[in-house]
Amino acid sequence: MEDESIQDYHLNILDIANSFESLGEKISDEKLVRKILRSLPKRFDMKVTAIEEAQDISSLKVDELIWYLKFFEITVNSKTNKKGKGGIVFASSFDSDETQGNHEDDEDMSEH
Fold first, then answer.
1. Cβ(37)–Cβ(66) under 8 Å?
2. Which of 6, 12, 46, 101 could form an SS bridge with 69, CB 3.0 to 4.6 Å?
3. pLDDT score, position 4
4. DSSP label at 55?
């Protein structure tokens, strides 16, 4: 699961839930949500905590949870891909302003 996407993980969970249902045991959304939250890899710990604090887990649907997790996964992946480029540009822009003695922004801030 560590490298598995949330979409693939969701499909596996649905297969398992469908297997239980075909054997005559329906698993409730609440039980599935709780099991999913417990079984996610460490990279989702921050999001799991946020969901548990902000949502009523007993009424959260599996599809809603998966949507939150997909959005989180996309956000983290896009930040990771941009991290190197954005940090370098910002650092060199910041360094060049200071070395040139450009403190116009500081004066503007002190006036307000």
1. no
2. 6
3. 82
4. S
